[in-house]
Amino acid sequence: MKIICIGRNYTNHIEELKNERPTEPVVFMKPDSAVLLKQHPFVIPEFSKDIHHEIEVVVKINKVGKYIEPKFAYKYYDEISVGIDFTARDLQTKLKEKGLPWEKAKAFDGSAVIGDFLPKTLFSSVENITFELTNNAKTVQKGNTSLMLWKIDELISYVSQYFTLKIGDVIFTGTPAGVAAVKPNDVLEGFLEGKKLFRIQVK
Fold this sequence. Notes:
globular
């Protein structure tokens, strides 16, 4: 199982972090050990004092593909969800300043929350789906897939140029603005078109 993540795919989040707008998708990966197990809390790691939540739409690959054309990408997934890409922002900032890879800040154990999946057929268009994250019942992030710089099918096609996609791989498609630090006792809930797909306790 590969966890393929896309960075800087929403303009408002790029502006929020004062990043340069990319000319092609920013891709990084998490190992399978990054997946937060169901019913487990998210424990803030001791190496960071600034863990941020980043809610994202997640798609699950349903068949093997390489060099997938955008017009055929829709055939390679039939389930969609939301998840959190937890980020050690303080550590990431230090790594970026030195031009070093992000893995320690992005791919640590428990850094990938994956919600329950829904059939893609429930939605009239995957290019117009609203999703949101609440923290202690207050909305903290909200986005719509229509605002992606690169749409889901474009991302699948792009990523498949570099990595063979296999059954069960997941793609995190980027986060909108509103990222912020989490603290102990926070309760994070993720929604896709109003349907709650995960609930996470922070410790």
